[in-house]
Amino acid sequence: MKNKNNIKFIQGNEACVEGAIYAGIDFFAGYPITPSTEIMEHLSSRLPQKGGKFVQMEDEIASMSAVIGASLTGNKVMTATSGPGFSLKQEALGYACMAEIPCVIVNVQRGGPSTGNPTHVSQGDVNQARWGTHGDHSIIALTASNHQDVFKVTVEAFNMAETYRTPVILLFDEIIGHMRDKLVIPEKGEIPVVERLRTSVKKGVDYHPYLPREDGRLPMSDFGAEHRYNVTGLFHDMWGFPNNNPHVVNELLRHLTDKIENNVNEISMYKEYWMDDAEYILISYGSSARSAIHLAKNRRARGIKIGVLELQTLWPFPSDMVREKCAGAKAIIVVEMNMGQIVIQVKNAVDKPNNVFLSNRIDGELILPTDIKTVFRTIQGKGV
């Protein structure tokens, strides 16, 4: 029987906070921005209660830099923002990719570009999450459509950050952040929590901060503790010192990419509904998936075989999984609130890209089941 104290009726932003607490967050630095501010507000009281540190920084650039420094000293860290703040974080996010620093960045999306539509929903930052920082790199970006999953993917974001020594982005949206729903907080141990992998190298012995073990993981040493080592955003060798030797550069870039791209199956998270016999498939994510699921359930009751593939990992994009799940579909409709950022990935993944269609809204309003139904009827009218 569930402990009644573990059952809450809260906002999605609060569910993210509860997930971070469960995962063992030690440090948060941030700057208030709609529609993510509640994450910062709740952590300002919750984090000190568990012995963690909360700092309101002067801006988003400083916030990202602060969590990088705190992570290097051995802490599990997170920051939260929305579109304009996410833009400001990109240079430091690239530094975290290059220096392989575990951290979690939450972006509760709103309308853009620029100040855009601060209090309304959008999913326009999908490609920015993938390519916002410069240079060849890989990134992990997760999302969710309900509070129970917001909690779970937040825990998984911390786990993946620690496992792959990389920044992980939580790409929520305003609807999910601000809607209220039931959350059952799992008992300790129900969801595995990955702790920081620390080096076994003793003090006074050569420590190589960028020398992977056989399993590919990089043990860390708390900066300022037993070992002295170099951290830089430049291309570097296994000691962390700058090195522009072509071989070193090539190997480092491939390592930064391969440690994520070669583990797509382990990183990929998704949910499926009525997919076993689906003739038509809706692919969606975030709050858009709620409308997709509603429409599919409604059409199923009328005898139309529609299934839903809800993506929770957006990056690295799970192309093989999407291709396999959609192999027998007559048509695929991608449901999202942007001008078509994931639909491009789906078309690249499937065998018949001409059978992939877009149902979207970009006006700051939640896409409705009726919006999707209009596209679906058009497709049926064409005989697809």
Strands, helices and their partners?
Elements: E1 7-11, H1 12-23, E2 27-30, H2 37-49, E3 53-56, H3 60-72, E4 77-81, H4 83-88, H5 90-99, E5 103-111, E6 117-121, H6 126-131, E7 140-142, H7 147-164, E8 167-173, H8 174-178, E9 180-184, H9 246-261, H10 264-267, E10 270-273, E11 280-284, H11 286-300, E12 306-311, E13 313-315, H12 319-325, E14 331-336, H13 342-349, E15 356-360, H14 369-381
Parallel strand pairs: 2-3, 2-4, 4-5, 5-8, 7-8, 11-12, 11-14, 14-15
Antiparallel strand pairs: 1-9, 5-6, 7-13, 10-12
Helix pairs in contact: 1-2, 1-7, 3-5, 11-14, 12-13
What attributes does this structure have?
alpha/beta; 2 domains; 384 residues; Rossmann fold
Beta percentage is: 15-25%
Query: Based on DSSP secondary structure assignment, what is the total number of beta strands?
Result: 15
The shape, in one word, is globular
Number of domains: 2
Task: Give the termini separation.
Answer: 49 Å
Task: Using the CA coordinates, give the radius of gyration.
Answer: 21 Å
CATH fold call of the largest domain: Rossmann fold
Average pLDDT value? 96
Counting DSSP H or I runs of 4 or more residues, the number of helices is 14
Poorly predicted sequence stretches spanning 5 or more consecutive residues: none
Structural class per helix/strand content?
alpha/beta
The CATH architecture term of the largest domain is 3-Layer(aba) Sandwich
CATH class of the largest domain equals Alpha Beta
Helix content: 25-40%
Profile the largest sheet. Answer: 8 strands, mixed
The helix-strand sequence is EHEHEHEHHEEHEHEHEHHEEHEEHEHEH
Query: Looking at this structure, what is the CATH superfamily of the largest domain?
Result: Thiamin diphosphate (ThDP)-binding fold, Pyr/PP domains
